[in-house]
Write a structure and sequence with these properties.
It is a single chain. By secondary structure, this protein is of the alpha/beta class. The chain has three domains: about 60 residues, no CATH class; about 130 residues, Trna Endonuclease, Chain: A, domain 1; about 55 residues. Helix content is about 45%, strand content about 20%. It contains 13 helices and ten strands. β1 and β2 form a beta hairpin. α3 runs antiparallel to α4 and α4 crosses α13. It is globular, with a radius of gyration of 20 Å.
């Protein structure tokens, strides 16, 4: 059975891949098996992956909104656009959870020219720059030109002293983070050049997906009980993580939601953050 990807490419339907994504949602095996069977009964030649995704989300919601929220993670990251401004803030949150000090959207003077840097982090007197490559389209890939370009910027900055976190610090390391994938050449060049690369599925362990699940660092865009407009309003209030919403529940009053909706949103948020695989 051929299904159509977002790019328009036709590929064989892989039931195991769908099953694995349902398992990662946190749903129990009975629920996973039931949903998988229902979807297999409904698919037809040429059905889009988007339609399959929508069906899976709808079926998961009937069981648990928090399961649907976890299944929604990849798309939730894509909703941190369209320009990637909130994605940069989100990546800063991920590094902060690992004990780094973070700053976003800085202009630093290099040896030759000044550079706008997405995120700067510091731990144990070591500073690093992070360049975030956000893609709104699932099929987009970060190719080799990106690490080649960023390496030149890093080389211009790394031997200079910068006033960061109220102290002078040199840029010792460079990270490139993308919500999608790196091309094979980009990975080879990055590793060869000493750059640190982080994507949805790279490295094999401690990739973006692993980091999110390990510390419950789910973006607010995961929540299925919020509309897209409401998610954007919360991010404008600098609430990027679901965890942050649980500590700033008054933000839901600020966007004029009913008491019943607030109850349902917070229920989903609590279940999502307490869930352990």
């Amino acid at each position: 059975m051929k299904i159509q990807k977002n790019s328009g490419e036709l590929v064989e339907f892989d039931a195991r891949k769908l099953q694995n994504s349902l398992v990662k949602s946190g749903a129990d095996q009975t629920t996973v098996s039931r949903i998988l069977q229902q979807i297999q009964n409904q698919i037809f030649e040429g059905i889009s992956t988007r339609q399959i995704y929508k069906t899976a989300i709808a079926l998961l919601k009937k069981k648990s909104h928090s399961h649907a929220a976890r299944y929604n993670l990849r798309q939730a990251i894509e909703q941190l656009g369209p320009a990637g401004f909130f994605f940069e803030k989100y990546i800063a949150r991920l590094f902060s959870a690992e004990g780094f000090q973070t700053q976003t959207n800085l202009i630093l003077a290099g040896k030759c020219v000044s550079h706008e840097i997405d995120v700067v982090v510091k731990k144990q007197d070591q500073c690093a720059m992070i360049e975030c490559k956000f893609h709104a389209q699932r099929e987009s890939v970060t190719d080799v030109k990106v690490p080649m370009y960023i390496l030149s910027r890093f080389n211009d900055l790394k031997n200079q002293e910068h006033l960061l976190f109220d102290a002078l610090c040199q840029i010792h390391h460079c990270w490139i983070v993308t919500n999608n994938r790196f091309s094979s050449d980009a990975l080879r060049f990055g590793r060869c050049s000493g750059l640190h690369l982080l994507s949805w599925d790279y490295p094999e362990k401690s990739n973006l997906r692993d980091k999110i699940d390990a510390d419950n660092l789910y973006p607010i865009t995961c929540l299925t009980t919020l509309t897209l407009n409401e998610k954007n309003q919360l991010m404008e209030q600098n609430i990027i993580l679901v965890k942050e919403l649980l500590h700033q529940t008054s933000a839901l009053d600020d966007i004029h939601l009913s008491a019943n909706r607030i109850k349902n949103i917070l229920k989903e948020a609590r279940e999502l953050c307490q869930q352990q695989l």
